[in-house]
Amino acid sequence: MSNTAVKGPVYFQEEAFNRLNTYLEQSSASKVFILVDKNTHRDCLATFLQQLENAKDFEILEIEAGEIHKNLETCTGLWNALSELDADRKSLMINLGGGVVTDLGGFVASTFKRGISYINIPTSLLAMVDASVGGKTGVDLGNLKNQIGVINHAEMVLVDSVFLKTLPQNEMRSGLAEILKHGLISSEEYWNKVTNLSALNLDDLDDIIKESIEIKAKVVLEDPRENGLRKTLNYGHTLGHAIESYFLTHPKKTTLLHGEAIAVGMILASQLSCKLQDFPEEKLASITGKILDIYEKVEFNKEDIPQIINLMKYDKKNSHGNINFVLLKDIGEPVLDCQVPTNLIWDAFKYYEEA
User: Fold this and answer.
1) Can 67 be counted among the known catalytic residues?
2) N or C: which end of the chain has fewer CB within 10 A?
3) Catalytic annotation on 241?
4) Catalytic entry in 54, 73, 84, 114
5) Are 210 and 296 members of one domain?
6) Total domain count for the chain?
7) In terms of domains, do 18 and 77 share one?
8) What angle do CA 45, 118, 244 make, to 5 degrees?
9) Catalytic residue (one of 178, 211, 244, 260)
10) Annotated active-site residue in 95, 120, 234, 324
11) Residue 153 falls in the annotated catalytic set
């Protein structure tokens, strides 16, 4: 099964590697580079290499694992490695990893010699349903998320849930946050489906991953440059990214996974939707309960909140000095470019604390 709603088609399960082998056989790639981090080198690379029929000469490039290494310093190391290994404009980069590897690898490929082709093979649930589809590449600037990057699509995205067997539960939950977001912005039917999973088992997930990718791909097709509709994919992210950034570099805070921060952001955004868009209160209570059943509550103190609010000014959806939120009128009815007074943000944190 493929989905060509984005420039680079998405292939699933067995078809994915058949397509890759055909592509490698037919492409005139001068060299093939496989980008992994320490975790995917250990857990996923051997499984991936077994799927290759006519293996050309591969060069393995490894980076440190984790969001803290998603920066220009890591990119510089990779650009230098590509140069030293005689990469040219006909080289191909295969990014085998989670969102850090696919975001950073896509950016490195898109900028090396003004752009070489790349393929994404996401190995985390988060990367499958979010990071690897839609052509967004990029890295963080200090603790500011995804400030440097370009939109440039992969040649193809290959999704195989076999890689999810290597993931710890907290990483599975992190990816589930983006699936929950797709439910909130698309339809009540999908929201109910993804919150009634009795357990995160791989059989249930295959169909949900496909559906989630299709929801995102449909939005990206209609608005590839994020001028309007694509902003809906940022539901929960305006505060969620700021929370993630704050916890990433605060010396006394435990770093949050992306989905853990976005889960908080979605509760806050849903409460703000109640205040500003007449979102139904009983649905807010239901969303809050379902999210807190999955994600451990995050502790905030009074010193944290002004610094988190300050970080929101770097959000990429902002324009003309305004911080723009995506809110909901109802499940499946997002509203773009909402201005939110600071006192209501404080109220939303109070709601979260008391939930």
Assistant:
1) no
2) N
3) yes
4) 114
5) yes
6) 2
7) yes
8) 75
9) 178
10) 234
11) no
- 30 and 161 part of one domain: yes
- Considering 41, 237, 283, 317, which one is annotated as catalytic? 237
* Residue 53 annotated to the active site: no
Determine the pLDDT at residue 60: 97
Q: Is 250 designated active site?
A: no
What pLDDT is recorded for position 8?
A: 76
* Average pLDDT, 10 consecutive residues per value, the chain (355 residues): 59 95 92 97 96 84 96 98 97 97 98 97 95 90 92 96 92 94 96 76 81 92 88 96 94 95 98 98 98 96 95 74 89 95 95 97
Closest by CA to 239, choosing from 334, 338, 142, is 338
Burial of 7 (0-12, 13-18, 19+ CB in 10 A): middle
Is residue 234 annotated as a catalytic residue, yes or no? yes
- Specify whether 88 is located in the same domain as 230: no
The pLDDT value given to residue 4: 41
157 in the same domain as 95: yes
Known catalytic membership, residue 41: no
Give yes or no: residues 174 and 313 share one domain. Answer: yes
CATH of residue 148: 3.40.50.1970
Question: Is 216 known to be catalytic?
Answer: yes
> Do 126 and 148 share a structural domain?
yes
Which of 140, 167, 194 terminates a domain? The answer is 167
Nearest CA among 301, 249, 294 for reference residue 267 = 294
Q: Provide the whole-model pTM.
A: 0.91
Please tell me whether residues 162 and 175 are part of one structural domain. no
> What CATH number has the domain bearing residue 207?
1.20.1090.10
pLDDT tens for each residue of 202-260: 577 888 999 999 999 999 989 888 889 999 999 999 999 999 999 998 999 999 999 99
Compute the residue count for the chain: 355
The CA distance from 175 to 173, in Å, is 5
User: Of 127, 147, 167, which one is at a domain's C-terminal end?
Assistant: 167
**Structural contact between residues 326 and 250, judged by C-beta atoms closer than 8 angstroms:** no
Domain that holds residue 136: 2-167
Catalytic residue among 211, 226, 244, 260: 226
| CA–CA separation, 100 and 282 (whole Å) | 36
